[in-house]
TrEMBL record:
This is Pyridine nucleotide-disulfide oxidoreductase. Gene3D superfamilies: 3.50.50.100. Its cofactor is FAD. Belongs to the NADH dehydrogenase family. One of its GO terms (molecular function) is NAD(P)H dehydrogenase (quinone) activity.
């Protein structure tokens, strides 16, 4: 039986193995294997909510091993370190426990078809001090690490005898992650008062967003950016545009004008790129964002047995732009590749991938949701905000749940989430 190995369990990878297990796996035409370095999947657009503490992986995460057992594919926990094209196999690093003891040795996993779905990481653009002093939100572990640091700051300011007046959080990058995190932090600062921190309020948390460009949300239409900026300003969030950071110190961000912006917590969310690991492999053709260049059928340009989807996949469009690294891109790629792999097994021609932009949405906690609908949802770009925009935003996550769990179980999980929100604390305190 042929093996299809998918490396990376993000939105695209997890949806792909779910689809393949229902078709090729169910018909015993292929063995489906998912490889990921984490045990739990959390939809990446929700990581800023994990960081702020308004959701947790227990209610919104997917346990890979349990999901694999339910959907009849295999899950391998591990970090891929090398691809052996000649022998069509990948190498996984040894697995260690928290005390440094080896649980599993280095392993190899053979494949007939390999799918790279390893996502993206924050791009620091070579800025000094980012890795030492900043938090990024690329993974569940990083989001939880920031949340613990935030809780520590909240505890400090509520301790008797502490004279500190404010907590200052500075965020570099005014894309969707930076702006949404800022709004969630404002919300959390008010919630904390009801959870044993009487000294805390929005007045005690100063949030600053630093953007090198002339406006926030540079990838989105100007009308959306303007509406989001006004909403953030009303919340008292400081928005600094045309502010380029040249280095990061322990005390804060140092701008190109050599001005120090002090901060207790520093977050870097200024763009993304595919992991540098792809460059180190010296195997694929890559673009400037480290993305794997692919054919119209999403096969890598160097090996037709290796495919790529999601943020690590570089698809050049007819207008000369690259397909943006968004959840909707990963979803569309996973859907097409599931069909193409099935066509390969049935000796049918593969289809070409075409990206459809359905619009963009920015959810600023409970305060505002703004965005635009495009593609098949609207004949032209249509600006939406308020309740309608929030309904569309929520529906995007719901569609991800349905793709991963199926309609029936997905609906039950949404129902359980609604009930859980009524009875559990609105702020995660551990």
């Amino acid at each position: 039986m042929k093996k299809i190995v998918v490396v990376g369990g993000g939105a695209g990878g997890l949806e792909l193995v779910t689809r393949l297990s229902k078709t090729l796996g169910k018909r015993k035409l292929a063995e489906i294997i998912l490889v990921d370095r984490s045990r739990t999947h959390v939809w990446k657009p929700l990581l800023h909510e994990v960081a702020a503490g308004v959701i947790n992986k227990a209610s919104d995460g997917v346990d890979y091993r349990m999901h694999a057992a339910q959907h009849h594919y295999q899950f391998q926990l591990g970090n891929m370190s090398f691809i052996d094209r000649d022998n069509q196999s990948i190498y996984l690093d040894p697995l260690y426990d928290e005390d440094g003891l080896e649980i599993l040795p280095e392993r190899t996993v053979e494949y007939d078809y390999l799918v790279m779905a390893i996502g993206s990481v924050t791009n620091d653009f070579g800025t000094l001090g980012v890795s030492e002093h900043c938090y990024c939100l690329d993974s569940l572990n990083q989001a939880e690490r920031f949340h613990r640091a935030l809780l520590n700051q909240l505890l400090k300011i509520n301790q008797d005898g502490v004279t500190k007046e404010k907590i200052h959080v500075a965020i570099v990058g005014a894309g969707a992650t930076g702006t949404e995190l800022a709004a969630q932090l404002h919300h959390v600062s008010n919630l904390a008062r009801a959870y044993g921190m009487p000294e805390m309020s929005a007045d005690k948390l100063q949030v600053s967003i630093l953007e090198a460009g002339p406006r926030i949300l540079p990838a989105l239409p100007e009308r959306i950016a303007g509406s989001a900026r006004r909403a953030l300003t009303r919340l008292g969030i400081e928005v600094r545009e045309n502010t380029r950071v040249q280095r990061v110190d322990k005390e804060g961000f140092v701008t190109a004008d050599d001005v120090l912006i002090e901060a207790d917590l520093m977050v870097w969310s200024a763009g993304v790129k595919a992991p540098d690991f792809l460059t180190d492999l010296k195997l694929f053709e890559l673009n400037k964002a480290n993305q794997i260049l692919v054919t119209p059928a999403l096969q890598s340009t160097v090996d037709n047995k290796i495919f790529a989807i999601g943020d690590c996949c570089g698809v050049l469009q007819k207008d000369g732009s690259w397909v943006p690294p968004r959840a909707q891109s990963a979803h569309q790629m996973a859907s097409l590749l599931a069909k193409n792999l099935q066509n390969l097994f049935l000796n049918k021609p593969m289809q070409a991938y075409t990206y459809t932009d359905y619009g963009s949405l920015v959810h600023l906690s409970k305060y505002s949701t703004v965005g635009s609908l495009m593609g098949k949802l609207s004949n032209s770009s249509m600006f939406i905000e308020g309740r309608l925009a929030k309904m569309v935003y929520v529906s995007l996550y719901n569609m991800h749940l349905f793709a991963v769990h199926g309609w029936f179980k997905g609906f039950l999980m949404l129902l359980m989430r609604k009930v859980s929100n009524l009875v559990t604390p609105k702020l995660k305190l551990h």
